[in-house]
Design brief:
Elements lengths: L1 E4 L2 E9 L3 E5 L10 H8 L3 E5 L16 H14 L5 E6 L1 H12 L4 E7 L9 H15 L2 H11 L2 H6 L1 H12 L3 H12 L4 H4 L6 E6 L7 H10 L3 E6 L6 H4 L1 H11 L3
Parallel strand pairs: 3-4, 3-5, 5-6, 6-7, 7-8
Antiparallel strand pairs: 1-2, 2-4
């Protein structure tokens, strides 16, 4: 489905029944990233999946974007749908948007799952994300596919799942360069940790044991700053833990979310 939200055409999908649950994907992904979780989630929740600005079928606009802007996009979509309260699952960039949403709209947030994410950029964040944005804008997404897959999944998983790698490689390659670059700008400005201390919503902070993109130490900091949070490390998983360890991820989510 499409809606005109915050000046852009935004793609979203609604399925299942029960309390609202919003899913927010990673950089260079789209709603399909959550396919492995949908059967379980649809049994207990009305699930909103959406494509972040400049990703999937949601319109790209010139960047750089900000996390406030990306949070406002989904807030406006929720208002459009008449949603007054929602649980949240966000991974990587989706977890950063989730933190920002929690800070800006705490009255709308139920339980939150923040997976494989961070609350503060690394010292070299501006140059690293700037370089990736420039590469996407100058050469397209193709040069970014293989390095991204190497960060996202363990070598063992990549070698054993070539069909999955081809599918996800295509997802990365099809991301609009303008949208990717815009979101790189948003990530480079990440700084939520201090504001997390004021949150009252329960939170599950989850991370892959072998996540090199946002290492466990970054998730530990979110856990330490978010008062009502718990912390789970998923074994044998790198950055996209909801795919690499789909069952363990889903089990942890279902144990945490009220249903």
């Amino acid at each position: 489905m499409k809606a005109h939200i915050n000046g852009i055409e935004m793609h979203y999908e609604v399925s299942g029944s029960g309390p609202w649950l919003t899913l927010s994907h990673s950089l260079a992904a789209n709603t399909a990233m959550w396919d492995a979780q949908m059967q379980a989630l649809n049994q207990h929740f009305t699930v909103l999946r959406y494509d972040i600005r400049g990703h999937g079928q949601t319109q790209a606009t010139p960047g750089p974007y900000t996390l406030n802007q990306l949070s406002d996009d989904v807030h406006a979509l929720l208002v459009h749908l008449g949603v007054q309260s929602t649980h949240w699952i966000g991974l990587s960039l989706g977890g950063m948007i989730g933190q920002t949403f929690a800070i800006r709209h705490p009255e709308m947030l139920g339980h939150a799952v923040i997976a494989d994410s961070s609350g503060r950029g690394a010292p070299n964040a501006a140059s690293m994300w700037g370089d990736r944005a420039k590469l996407a804008l100058s050469q397209g997404m193709s040069p970014l596919v293989e390095p991204t897959l190497q960060r996202w999944f363990t070598q063992d998983y990549r070698e054993k799942n070539p069909a999955v790698m081809a599918q996800i490689g295509q997802m990365i390659a099809s991301t609009p360069p303008e949208g990717y670059a815009g979101c790189c700008g948003a990530i480079s400005g990440l700084n939520t940790l201090d504001q997390l201390r004021d949150l009252r919503s329960p939170c599950l902070v989850m991370v892959g044991e072998q996540d090199m993109g946002t290492p466990p130490a970054m998730s530990e900091l979110i856990h330490q700053h978010w008062p009502a949070s718990s912390y789970v490390v998923l074994q044998n998983a790198a950055h996209i833990s909801n795919i690499e360890q789909a069952q363990a991820f889903t089990d942890a989510v279902m144990k945490f979310l009220p249903h």
